[in-house]
Specification:
By secondary structure, this protein is an alpha/beta fold. The chain is 33% helix and 17% strand. The protein has a 6-stranded mixed β-sheet with strand order 2-3-1-4-5-6, sandwiched between helices. The protein has a 4-stranded parallel β-sheet with strand order 8-7-9-10, with helices on both faces. Helix 10 packs parallel to helix 12.
Length: 409
C-alpha cells in the first residue's frame, strides 16, 4: 500500500444484505459500474462476503461488501448467515436488497431489526422493479417511514439516485480524530522508532507506521525514522528537541530509557487506541493484569491475519511477558481477522491489537460487546507500557485522558 492510498480501515463500509436471489450481487455490480461479483440465477451463488475497496462518487473511498443470502439453509448455510451478520459489525451503511416482485419477508424484517439494534443507517432497495407493472413511488410515507427506493440492476433505473442516498446516510458530521496531527504543530519534528527484525515485513513499513508518517506530514511537521539502537545517538546529534517520540511497543523499555524525561513518549499502539476511540477503556482494562491468577482466561485478539513468526507478538511474546509480570499461569485464547466471539463470558480480560486493519465501527462494537458483558478490554501497547511501568508517561500526551484516569494510573 502506498502512502497516498486510503487504507480499508479508513474507508466507509457499505454492506449489501438480503435473501438469496434478491439480486444483491447484480445491484452491487450496477452501483459500482463493474463486474465486481459473480452473478447467477442459481440461489446462493455468493457463499462468503466479498469486499472491494474503490472510489464511489459522490462518496469517495469506500469498501463495498456483498454478503451471502440471509435465508441460506443447512449447516453450511447457517455458517454463511453468521458471516453475513458479522459484516454488520463493521458496516457504516447497509443496503437491504428486496425482490420487488415478492416483497419483504420475515428474513428481511429480521435484518431490519438488526440494522436498528446495531444503529446502522440503512436503505431498502426494491430490486427488479422493471418486472413490476407500476412501481410505487419512492417515498417514506408508503413504507412506514423507512428509506426505500425502487431500482433495477438490469435497466439501471434509479441507480444514480441510490448512490446519492447511500452517500447521504453514510456521511457524518462528527469530527474525526487524527492519529498524531493534533498533538504537534507545523515545523515540529517527531522521531519514530521502528525496529527492523525478522518479524518486520520485507521492503515496507507496516500500516500504523505508514499512516502515522502521513499524518505527521499533513500537519506540516517532519518525521525522522530510526531503529531502536539509533535513537540515543540521534537525540544527541540532531540539535533540536523533538516534540514527540513514537515507538513500536515491543521496544518500549529501551526507548523509554533512551528518551529524556522532558520529551513526550508514546507508542503506535496507544495512538491507534486513541484514534479508534477506546484508549480510556484500554487504560482502565489493563489494571486487570494485577489481579489475574492461574484460573484466569485471557483472549488475545488481532484484527488481521498474518504469517506468524516464531516469536510472534500476540501469541508468544505477550503471553510470556504477562506470565513474567504476574508470576501466574493464566490460560490464553487467540482470535484473528473478522472472528471475534459474541459470547465473551469465558474470559477475564480481552487484549486487542492496535486494530489498524479494522474500521472504527467494528472496534467500537468489540469494545462495547466486552463492556456489556463486564469484561475488561485493553490493547497490546497499553499492556506492554503497564508491564514496563511507563503507562503514565505513555499516555501523558493526552492530558484529558490523563486527568480522567489519574487515580487509576
Amino acid at each position: 500500500m502506498g502512502l497516498n492510498d486510503t487504507p480499508s480501515a479508513n474507508r466507509i463500509h457499505i454492506g449489501f444484505f438480503g435473501r438469496r436471489n434478491a439480486g444483491k450481487s447484480s445491484l452491487v455490480n450496477a452501483v459500482t459500474n463493474q463486474d465486481l461479483v459473480i452473478v447467477s440465477d442459481i440461489r446462493g451463488t455468493t457463499t462468503d462476503p466479498v469486499s472491494k475497496a474503490m472510489e464511489l462518487l459522490p462518496l469517495g473511498p469506500v469498501l463495498i461488501i456483498d454478503t451471502p443470502g440471509i435465508d441460506d439453509e443447512g449447516a453450511l448455510g447457517e455458517l454463511r448467515v453468521r458471516r453475513a451478520k458479522q459484516v454488520l459489525n463493521k458496516t457504516d451503511a447497509a443496503i437491504l436488497v428486496v425482490d420487488a416482485v415478492t416483497g419483504k419477508t420475515e428474513a428481511d424484517e429480521e435484518l431490519i431489526s438488526l440494522f436498528r439494534a446495531k444503529q446502522v443507517p440503512f436503505i431498502i432497495a426494491y430490486n427488479k422493479s422493471d418486472l413490476l407493472e407500476s412501481p410505487p413511488a419512492d417515498n417514506a410515507e408508503n413504507t412506514g417511514g423507512e428509506n426505500t427506493i425502487y431500482v433495477s440492476a438490469i435497466t439501471k433505473h434509479n441507480i444514480e439516485t441510490l448512490k446519492e442516498r447511500i452517500a447521504f446516510i453514510a456521511k457524518t458530521d462528527e469530527p474525526k480524530l487524527q492519529i498524531v496531527g493534533d498533538l504537534i504543530r507545523p515545523g515540529d519534528f517527531v522521531i519514530l522508532v521502528v525496529p527492523i527484525d525478522k518479524a518486520a515485513p520485507k521492503g515496507r513499513l507496516i500500516l500504523p507506521q505508514q499512516q502515522t508518517i502521513r499524518d505527521i506530514l499533513e500537519a506540516d511537521a517532519a518525521a525522522v525514522v530510526v531503529k531502536e539502537f539509533e535513537l540515543k545517538e540521534t537525540l544527541e546529534n540532531i540539535g533540536k528537541k523533538p516534540s514527540l517520540v513514537i515507538t513500536d511497543s515491543q521496544v518500549f523499555a529501551k526507548v523509554s530509557a533512551d528518551t529524556p524525561a522532558d520529551i513526550p513518549l508514546t507508542s503506535f499502539s496507544i495512538l491507534f487506541a486513541r484514534y479508534k476511540g477506546y484508549l480510556a477503556s484500554a487504560v482502565r482494562g489493563v489494571r486487570t493484569l494485577d489481579h489475574i491468577d492461574d484460573r484466569s482466561r485471557i483472549l488475545i485478539a488481532e484484527g488481521c491475519t498474518h504469517h506468524r513468526q516464531c516469536d510472534d507478538i500476540g501469541t508468544v511474546k505477550l503471553p510470556r511477558w504477562i506470565k513474567q509480570y504476574t508470576g501466574k499461569e493464566p490460560e490464553f485464547a487467540f482470535t484473528s481477522g473478522g472472528e471475534f466471539p459474541e459470547d465473551l463470558s469465558p474470559y477475564d480480560l480481552i487484549i486487542h491489537c492496535g486494530a489498524c486493519m479494522l474500521n472504527e465501527r467494528e472496534v467500537r462494537y468489540r469494545e462495547a460487546n466486552a463492556a456489556d458483558q463486564g469484561i475488561p478490554f485493553t490493547n497490546y501497547g497499553t499492556v506492554i507500557a503497564h508491564i514496563q511501568g511507563i503507562l503514565k508517561r505513555s499516555v501523558a500526551v493526552f492530558p484529558h485522558i490523563l486527568a480522567e484516569l489519574e487515580d487509576e494510573l
